[in-house]
Each structure stands twice: as structure tokens, then as C-alpha cells.
Write a structure and sequence with these properties.
alpha/beta; 6-stranded mixed sheet; 4-stranded antiparallel sheet; 13 strands; ABC_transporter-like_ATP-bd; ATP binding; AAA+_ATPase; transport; ATP-binding
């Protein structure tokens, strides 16, 4: 691994970067810096600009304005120097070659290649090394893309929705390998719609929305930023929902009914910006909540809350 990136040279530096497609502003004045050894998840709703951001970072597209630097150089130079390994969302794989041939080609092209057999093994491809690339399942093709991204010793690994189509064990093996890569000091940047993966894997989460950075922090910080907590409880018998819907600090409520021989009951799930006050008012209604639980938001709920609040602010 090369170590020329110093503490003062970000692995990736975006400075006021914008990219438009016609009238669509895909990336809008984006500034960010990634540092050595970070594992960073890039989240955002469909069309938020994640793929465009990664394309800019990889020099596949040019910014309309602003600068993109990778290890202090242009993206193209960083790639030519073998410092970046990338796995794109649906990059076409050459049709008439075998898995082993394609991986060998990627190794041959890398300035600091690993052994083909090791690359195949790491991506769990040894068993299907002789299969034609166009005969693979979606998950297997995804593992080939992963192998191509890790064909050599790169300092930055960029992954666009890497585990889409992978089964559970392939996904676990994939992230175990990525952890190893990060533990060895590499920077890993991945775009994903699987928020549980971001929560479990990333030590930094970037939330993009309409090409802008809406949140940047640890998963815990993002959850706290959403500023809401979950309250859930069961109520026995028939209930009047109106007072529940009027509880203070409530941002959302769902009531699911469940009937049984013993009578009806309902489970109420609430999001509140002040759970203590909401629960206090709940008891004030004279009801008897059973199985009361108060918990922080999961990353997924926090993400939904943050992006919905931004949508509301902009409309
Ligand atoms: N080649 C293109 N031509 C025109 N518009 C484009 C092009 N690529 C992306 N866009 C638009 O730019 C915006 C950002 O797209 P981008 O693919 O970067 O988002 P994303 O966050 O990766 O989305 P997804 O989660 O759906 O993959 C979207 O509005 C998209 O429709």
C-alpha cells in the first residue's frame, strides 16, 4: 500500500463541486473530505446524486464547477497510479471470457496486482472460475465486480451499491473482506440503500439529498440529529384513536389492531420529538399502556425523518 497521503492530504477532496444534466442539478455545491482508514457510507434517496458523486470521484464525469482531488491529484491520475479500486453499480462485464480470464486481465492492468488465485478466493469465485461471465447469476456477477475492484493493492475502494443481488452469506463474506481492507488502513467509500449495512459497517455516514450534503457524522450522530424517538405500547379493548393522535410532540403514529378470542388489542407505534412528554401525556389520558418501550430511531428511520424534513422545508 502506498502511503503518500498525509494527514493533511485528504484521500478524497470535493470543493464546491456541481454537476448538472440539462436542467437536473445532480450534484450541487458539494464539499467534503475523506481521510485515510475511514469506512464511509453514502446514503440518499433515489436520484440524490450518489452515483454521480462516485462518477466524479472516479473521473468518469467532469464537474461543471468546483474541484475534485483524489490523494491530492486528479481522479484520473490517482486511478492510473493504481490507488483506486472501484466497483460500479452495473458496469458491463465482457461477455465471452471466463471469470478467471477477466480477473487476470484486471490484475494485469493494476500497477500493484494481487495473485489471481487470491483475488478469486477472496470474492468466493474459485468454484466458478472457468464459467463464462455472461452465464452468471446477478449475485455472482456482483462478486466478479467486487473481484475486479480488489485485483490490486489500492488505497481507496469505491463501491456503488455493492451487495445488491447478493445472498445473505455472500453479503456477509463481502463485508468481512471490506472490514479487513479498512483494518489495513484503506479508505472504503460505498453507496447503499441498505441502511442496516451502513449502520453496521460505516464509521462515517454521508446523507445526500438533491445533490447536497444533508448530514455527515457517525451513524449514532445521524440518529441523534433526527431528534426523534420511538414509543410503542399495547392497549387492550376498544380505544378512541383521536386523543392518541393529538398527543404532544408526536410526528407519526400507526395503530395496528389484533383481535383474539380474549378480546381486541392494538399496538401503537409513535415517533416523538419529546418522548418523555408524550408518554406523560399518554398516562394523562387515563389509558393503561402495556409493553411500553421507548427507543432511539434506527438509522433507517432517522434517514427517512431527516430527508422528509428537508423535503418539507424545501416545498
Ligand atoms: N446521464 C444522465 N442524464 C441525465 N440525467 C441524469 C443522468 N444521470 C443521472 N441523472 C439524474 O441526476 C440525478 C442524480 O442521479 P444519480 O444517479 O447520481 O442519483 P443516485 O443517488 O445514484 O440515485 P439511485 O439511488 O436511484 O441510484 C437524478 O435526478 C437523475 O435522474
Amino acid at each position: 500500500m502506498t502511503t503518500t497521503a498525509t494527514a493533511t492530504t485528504p484521500v478524497v477532496g470535493f470543493d464546491q463541486v456541481s454537476k448538472t444534466y440539462g436542467s437536473v442539478r445532480a450534484v450541487d455545491g458539494l464539499s467534503l473530505a475523506l481521510h485515510p482508514g475511514e469506512t464511509v457510507a453514502l446514503l440518499g434517496p433515489n436520484g440524490a446524486g450518489k452515483s454521480t458523486t462516485l462518477d466524479l470521484l472516479l473521473g468518469l464525469r467532469n464537474a461543471d464547477s468546483g474541484t475534485v482531488r483524489v490523494f491530492g491529484t486528479s481522479p484520473r491520475e490517482a486511478i492510473v497510479n493504481g490507488r483506486v479500486g472501484a466497483m460500479l453499480q452495473s458496469g458491463g462485464l465482457m461477455d465471452e471470457v471466463t471469470v478467471a480470464e477477466l480477473v487476470k486481465l484486471a490484475c494485469d492492468l493494476h500497477p500493484k496486482p494481487y495473485k489471481v488465485a487470491d483475488v478469486l478466493a477472496r470474492a468466493s469465485l474459485t468454484q466458478i472460475a472457468d464459467r463464462k461471465v455472461n452465464k452468471l447469476s446477478g449475485g455472482q456477477a456482483q462478486r466478479v465486480r467486487f473481484a475486479l475492484a480488489t485485483a490490486g493493492d489500492s488505497d481507496l475502494i469505491v463501491l456503488d451499491e455493492p451487495t445488491t443481488g447478493m445472498d445473505v452469506s455472500a453479503r456477509q463474506a463481502f463485508w468481512a473482506t471490506m472490514r479487513e481492507q479498512a483494518d489495513q488502513g484503506r479508505t472504503v467509500l460505498f453507496a447503499t440503500h441498505y441502511l442496516e449495512e451502513a449502520d453496521a459497517i460505516a464509521d462515517r455516514v454521508l446523507v445526500l439529498h438533491r445533490g447536497r450534503l444533508l448530514a455527515d457524522g457517525t451513524a449514532a450522530e445521524i440518529k441523534a440529529k433526527a431528534g426523534a424517538r420511538r414509543v410503542s405500547f399495547d392497549l387492550e379493548g376498544e380505544i378512541d384513536e383521536a386523543p392518541l393522535r393529538n398527543l404532544p410532540f408526536l410526528t407519526s403514529i400507526t395503530v395496528s389492531k389484533s383481535g383474539s378470542a380474549a378480546g381486541s388489542s392494538q399496538t401503537i407505534r409513535i415517533q416523538s420529538t419529546d418522548a418523555d412528554a408524550t408518554v406523560h401525556a399518554l398516562y394523562g389520558l387515563g389509558v393503561y399502556p402495556r409493553n411500553l418501550e421507548v427507543a432511539g430511531l434506527g438509522l433507517e428511520q432517522a434517514f427517512v425523518a431527516i430527508t422528509a424534513a428537508e423535503e418539507a422545508r424545501q416545498s
